[in-house]
Amino acid sequence: MNYILWQMQQEVAEFVYLRSGNVKMEKMMEQQQLKKCPIGIQTFEKIIEGNYLYVDKTEYVYRMVHGASNYCFLSRPRRFGKSLLTSTLHSYFAGKKDLFRGLAIEKLETEWTEYPVLHFDMSLAKHVDKDTLESMLSFQLSGYEQIYGKPEEAVKLNDRMTSLIMRANEQTGRQVVVLIDEYDAPLLDVMHEETDLPVLRNVMRNFYSPLKACDPYLRFVFLTGITKFSQLSIFSELNNILNISMLKPYAAICGITQEEMQEQMTAYIERLAVAQEMTEEETLRKLKEKYDGYHFTWPSPDIYNPFSLLNALERRRIDNYWFGSGTPTYLIEMLRKFHVLPSQLGGSMQAMAADFDAPTEKMEGIVPLLYQSGYFTIKDYNKLAELYTLDIPNGEIRIGLMRSLLPGYLAHNTLKGNTTIARMYLAIAGGDMDGALRLLQEFLSTVPYCDNTNYEGHYQQLFYIIFSLFGMYVDVEVRTPKGRVDVVMRVAGKLYVIELKLGRSAEAAMAQINLKQYPERFSLSGLQVVKVGINFDVEKHTLGAWVIEE
Hints:
Structural class: alpha/beta
CATH superfamily of the largest domain: P-loop containing nucleotide triphosphate hydrolases
Number of helices: 24
Number of strands: 15
CATH topology of the largest domain: Rossmann fold
CATH class of the largest domain: Alpha Beta
């Protein structure tokens, strides 16, 4: 009897095992059949017809084109879906109803009127001079002039644009749609220059000037860009543009929300979790820490960087994709222009909307550019004081930003520097601060001397960058009742209080820590406080000696 019962139990167990295996196999087959993520594909028609994954933003399209203004401007960081949105508008106004089957707008739109669409992509005009810019604009105009014709007297860019709009309206009997993607692309790389910027800006102003005069012939005008230039400098008298960048109804028009990700990308996340040998909960937490955190108004849903998130899901690897696609040179140049230190970028700041949602050519500080470029985002808002709290969105941006600043402190010897920093991380995470400092000492001795290394602040900022790249909490010039600590870092249950001395002994640095009782400032943290006094050798331009007390 016992044997029969045992046999029945074995058969049940075998069935459960096989069923479990089948379920796993079915899930694996399902994941293998997932739609491809549209990496680098910015054309709506290609995504739909190619059966790529598409996060439905057509409700926002309907809301915008049926809104109060026929002129709209949207600012979002690079690789955030602006070009795809512009392409979606192109397909919509071209009356391509079939492309929108099953999407939100299919239930909202009833007319599907076909309009003549003039779509200009200004991203093609990067790193150009005046003549090249005018030539590229001329080339884009000529494509549409082959369709609608061009009068002989229309020679200048603005005259050709005016003629084109009027002819398209006359020949089709319908108003014209003008879409301008990345309107500011020709200007970004010369933003820091006082000579080239006005020249290129005048070319663009001349090109855009007909949009105001041609208002009776226009159904809709949409412009996207990264930065916000003043209407006076770029758009001449075009003062009727509605800036939707910070309007709550359009908060999630670009990017991927937490809700969208969890509703449409569950299978992708499961696949990523398997590849990374993590649970789904761990994977979601890592994705959030790495790519989430954007808010373009307040309140706002949590928004993920779409480029980074889709790359991670497609490649099944969590990495720094946004910065890997290129660090804009204009950002580095503007940081230098405004003498911004790395530590000034690492903490939150408060500002009014006019301080960061402001024309970049008139900015008196770096904040507007940092916000509009996506390196800072909104984290909170005090309605009473009308104050926004700005901070770095997520881990990817923090690490990428610091890494882009590193060459300025390592004399561009960044390859060996990155290796050294990785080894330092392993040492500190293992509790070996002495070993980490030896690695840094050895590396700095190989870095060529430069003029800006003969002050403590240089090394203070170098420490800040290195510790930030670790993903650890770090701050500089931390206030205490009796003074300021040069560097404070938290890692692995320990709080390091670090004092730096240039040309003075490590013992003198330690004496200052003890005399001013810096550790008492952190006594309530519950962490073990480790005191580190460091001497920098003026002659050798590297770490001299150090003292560590636990």
